[in-house]
Design brief:
The protein is α/β, with parallel strands linked by helices. It has three domains: 94 residues, Arc Repressor Mutant, subunit A, CATH 1.10.10; 105 residues, D-Maltodextrin-Binding Protein, domain 2 (3-Layer(aba) Sandwich), CATH 3.40.190; 100 residues, Periplasmic binding protein-like II (D-Maltodextrin-Binding Protein, domain 2, 3-Layer(aba) Sandwich). The strands form five sheets. It has a six-stranded mixed beta sheet. Helix 8 links the parallel strand 12 and strand 13. The radius of gyration is 33 Å and the shape is rod-shaped. The two termini are 53 Å apart.
Length: 318
């Protein structure tokens, strides 16, 4: 491979039909053609001007053609030099493009990231994660698909996404590798004028007699909450059921009851009508990220995982 900059240790010569072409000679020739000056070419190559002159003479000796006519301090390239330059420049531009692509891959400036997620994360947490990721990966095209957990698993198994996010912390699905994320405590959302709104935290017994806006029946957060309520013998009603935590918050605003939701929706649902309180003992909000089992994990995916883990860790400590 030709070297695009002056090397301390010259690479091996390139042999073409009996001619030994030294890459440093070709590099010096290209710089002279681009700058029109051996002095400037020497500065670009970070060598002395006599060294450039010697490289040009050696190249002329190798090809058996006089490439430049010298008029005082000026170098006048001949037709042969112009033709050789077109080929050498084309070659070097190809090498430079390869170097650029390699550097882009190394620094993860190009590529695609296909993400699918349950709505509880996609509408809040992952939007913030994508924002943070994109700030340092501006040339990576990101797509975010909002699905239920089963659909996310199906997409991952079919290699149609690079990473997915599901409710289940402990699940198995063929063709998918599951990695649990750090669990976070769910919160209770109430109107500010609710009888429990001035409490520092909501105890399980405090749900006695309340109307609880429920998430969908297969939602693990709902299952965990109802298990805790049933174990404590708490009686409650379920006036409304919804698949979205955002909808649950709006139903709370409409005085239909109280709700238990994930902390991400709570943080971004800023409204003067509602408050969000911790639950004691904590009801965990758990989810996992999933990867196709037979698809190599790219650096783009690794970097996005780091962003998500950092985001979850920051919320855990908040």
């Amino acid at each position: 491979m030709l070297c695009t900059r002056a090397c301390e240790t010259p690479p091996a010569a390139i042999t073409l039909k009996g001619m030994d072409l030294n890459p440093r000679q070709l590099d010096a020739f290209r710089k002279v053609m681009l700058t029109g000056s051996m002095t400037i070419a020497a500065e670009r190559l970070q060598v002395s001007q006599p060294a450039v002159s010697r490289l040009i003479r050696d190249l002329e000796a190798s090809v058996g053609i006089r490439l430049f006519r010298r008029e005082g301090n000026r170098l006048i390239p001949g037709a042969e030099a112009q033709r050789l330059f077109r080929e050498v420049d084309l070659f070097y531009r190809g090498i430079e493009q390869i170097e650029k692509v390699a550097q882009d891959l190394k620094s993860v400036r190009i590529g695609n990231l296909r993400v699918a997620s349950l709505s509880a994360l996609a509408l809040n947490a992952l939007c913030e994660c994508v924002n943070r990721f994109a700030a340092t990966h501006r040339e990576v095209a990101v797509s975010l698909d909002v699905r239920n957990s089963l659909s996310v698993l199906e997409l991952a198994a079919a290699n149609q996404i690079d990473i997915g996010f599901v409710h289940q912390a402990n699940t198995e699905y063929p063709g998918v590798v599951v990695h649990p994320l750090q669990s976070l405590p769910a919160v209770c959302v109430l109107r500010r004028d609710h009888r429990l709104a001035d409490r520092p935290a909501i105890a399980i017994d405090d749900f006695e007699g309340e109307s609880i806006i429920s998430l969908s029946q297969n939602n693990p957060l709902r299952v965990r909450l109802e298990s805790a309520l049933d174990a404590a013998g708490v009686r409650y009603s379920r006036p409304v059921e919804t698949t979205l935590a955002y909808s649950a918050c709006n139903f709370v605003r409409g005085r239909l009851g109280i709700a238990v939701i994930d902390p991400f929706t709570a943080k971004h649902f800023v409204d003067s009508d509602v408050v969000f309180l911790p639950i004691e003992p904590a009801v965990p909000f758990e989810c996992s990220f999933v990867l196709p089992a037979h698809q190599p994990r790219s650096k783009v995916v690794e970097d996005f995982i780091d962003v998500v883990k950092s985001f979850f860790s920051a919320h855990r400590q908040a």
